[in-house]
Amino acid sequence: MKWDEAVTYVDRGDLSNALRIFLSIQEPNSKIYFDIGCLQLLNEDLEAAEKAFDCSIGKDEHLAVAFFQRGITFYRTKRFEESLGDFKHAFKTLRGNQLIDYKALGLRYKLYACEVLHNMALSEAQLGNWEKAQENLVKALDFKTENKLSVIDRALESTLKQKLFKLVEFPSKVLFKPNKHYVAELEKKDYLGKAKIISSVVPQDDFSGFAPLQPQVEDGPVHPKEPEVLRALEGEPHIVLFEFVPETSDELAVVPGNVVFVLQKGTDNWASVVFNERRGLVPYNYLERYEMSLASKQNKQGISVPPTREPPTRPERKQGGTRSDKKSGETRSKDSQPADNSFTVKVRSSFTFAVSVPAESSNAILIDKISKKLNLPYNGITLSLTSEETEQSVINADSDMENVWSRAKGRRITLWCHTKEQTDGEPQTEIHFVALHSYESSNPEDLNFHEGDKIIFLSRVNQDWLEGQCNGNTGIFPAAFVEEVPLSMQ
Question: What DSSP string describes 308-377?
């Protein structure tokens, strides 16, 4: 097989013969075109490398590493806008994952999201967009791994001084290799002998999942062999169907379209999952098994989200049930989950959150719980059954709470919260912060902002994280990214 022969020449250091054999291959697939591009890049033939990567992407438009390599090629030719576009496309193809391990496809290489963002930042810096460069590097901190942290930190330090930094490049002589079992099968199978009925599971070039090449086998299974999918993270990939608002500290906020990796499914119908390096619990009936190969064929634009419909009933949390796996053997405190006779109230305000209250609680208890969550005074909050604050929908001390709780389904109810700017005619004393750096995160509970934005402080989550409001949004953010504004300057 010419592909295998060419790779062998590369291993021996004979790049000229390797390239000659590669170029003689009839109808190369996306991986062979990628290998040709890498060799042309080593030979400093940037124009030929660009054409090879064009062909690789043309064969598989979801091959993130090909966009990454073409972006490097554009960068070397000082076409920074085009390199930025390719790095952005590579990051988009990662679909929010920390990395893609291409080992299963025959390439001993891991493409890290933080390194793609690093190169995006460098391209922005070359174009003079230093603020955008900083934003990309701060975003890279969300995707960093320990061994990549110093690279991002050094680059961030350089942008603060408006100095360029080193490009992260693809390692030399690392190429896609054909599956050895596939090669062995080609060598020993007699295709000119007696005709046989066989089943082939060799992926076509337009296949954009993350599966390795497979040998042709006799009496193949009725269903296609399940592909290897994003071995960058352990667990099985699932797509989120419904928004889930956590009620306890060991649950994880997710929104429709997120891809999570299920580590464990408990008998109580809760799943321990990983999403963007965070582990937590999510109701398993909010998820659906995600087949990468099917998604790539059916939806070229990205992950398809099912039509909007009512979410299923939240499963009951059982004592000793599924753990979030933050620490093996860690037990939940008694107040970390609602009691069996409690009601869950989903509150829609400037952001959405949930609280747990005793069954058929009074208006006073409900208001007190929500005011503490929002860090607002008791009389600065009005609740209603609908988004409009009308006489019929407002809940107050005179409301029939039995009628309010009767609207709950499955011990869950949604209410709307309206807040007032002033209390008792006096302005509320607010603590303000100013953003020292831009912060952007794909986690739904985080607050995104840009350098210089004003942030209203709501509460302190812990030593490193705060909760606040900015530009009409509410969420948590790192305390190190902001500075308190003195009262005299507010």
Answer: P-PPPPPPPPPTT-----SSTTPPPPGGGS--TTEEEEEEESSSEEEEEEETT--HHHHHHHHHHHHT--
